[in-house]
Amino acid sequence: MTDIKVSFGWNSYQTCSAQQCSNASILEQGVSYWQDSNIIISLFFYVAVAGAYDISLLSTEVQRSAELQVTIPTISYRYFAKFNTDSLNLSLGTIQIKYPGYYQVNFQGTNSLVNRKTGYYPQLNSLILSGSQNQNAIYFVNDSFSSYYGRRGPSCHFTYNLESKTNIQQFFNEVTVPKYWDAVGTYAMAIGFDYGYFGMQVNSESERKILFSVWSPQSTDDPSQISADNTVILVSKGNNTVINSFGGEGSGGQSYLVYPWVAGVSYQFKLVGQPSTNGYSVFSAYFKDPTKSQDYILIASWKRPKTQSYLSGLYSFIENFNPEKGHISRKAYFNHQKAIDYRNKEVKVLSAYFTYDVTADKKQRFDYDGGVDNVKGFYLRNCGFFNKTNVQYGDTFIKNK
To answer: Three-class SS of residue 84?
Structure first.
């Protein structure tokens, strides 16, 4: 028999809303400092092999006697776990899993008299599943992987196949995030290219942005280390565009417009790129809100040094950049792609092929999807622990017009 230990620090989220409860602390060590009975901690894992599993809860600190309600909604499982100060490993019985897929286990303090004493609820460290002979029966974000990227969830991408890749000067894309699929942390990246990326973000409950960034040719995550001859230079910007440098994932020039874009509306993006003088190339990003105007507005125009290039490596992606929100699904449609070369001749966009990041590649998360809708366009979906789809890395999709 194999004991499979699913760590809370890599695989759990607080799933009640901020209006209902205070916050627990979810760190790599586990879940701690929670005493509000409205808090729900949800742990997620993927079961590849159906069967009966004995489950137990491992804690490293129990300050006081307490009761936790443990539920697995999809299999109608409910258990009251009674912790005493000397019970760090508590059996929760046996669960029968009939179908492979993602399972969510919820933990919530009860309102019993024993729980009204002072102190925090027991620290949640690991859920242990026993009973399988197969070491690959359960998949989850394991301790050897990044808890930050694992809890963020997988990113997935479409790379566009063009009839010709030579001297593409302009690229157009339309992005629609459907209603109710715009969780905080969403980045629907409309036009990525070899030297930067351009799209729209949900930064908080009250702020959204249209973001355009261009990488420096110098390889560093620290923008203060970029030499003068490797610095991306601002050429021009829109009236309300904010200009910054950025780091942490390479470094370069960042520009963004705080803009209240709305889920369900199809926004249009235009990127222009071409060689300039003195070894620079100029890349300019434009955005259109069809509910406000039929004209594009400039976000920013940047000069990238040591570069003589038109647009290349054109792609789109969807990601979640907030690790506390990796349990919520996102979706975006990408439609009406158009490419124009330096002679002002339209170049056909033939197809899009699907890829994903290391989180999916290492089988840490399976909640990713991509495909095509002949009306709405190519679509990408990620996060939310939905059951694994049939899309494969490298699958190619063609939109029938």
So the answer is: coil
* Residue 54, φ and ψ in degrees, nearest 5: -80, 135
Give the separation between CA 199 and CA 212, rounded to whole angstroms. Answer: 7
**Dihedral pair phi/psi, residue 9, rounded to 5°:** -65, -20
Take residue 13 and report the two structure tokens written for it.
Answer: 């989220």
Length of the chain, please? 401
- Structural domains in the chain, CATH included, are 2-144 (2.60.120.260), 150-397 (2.60.120.200)
Please give the average pLDDT of every successive group of 10 residues along the chain, which has 401 residues: 90 82 88 89 95 92 84 93 82 92 94 67 92 84 95 98 95 98 98 98 97 94 90 96 89 96 98 96 98 95 97 98 97 98 96 98 97 96 91 94 67
Q: Which among 9, 19, 59, 10 is positioned nearest to 39, based on CA atoms?
A: 19
- Residue 123 C-alpha from the chain's centroid: 27
Per DSSP (E only), the strands in 84-165 are 89-97, 101-109, 126-132, 138-139, 156-162
Beta strand 30-32 with 126-132 is: unpaired
| Strand 77-83, strand 41-47: pairing | unpaired
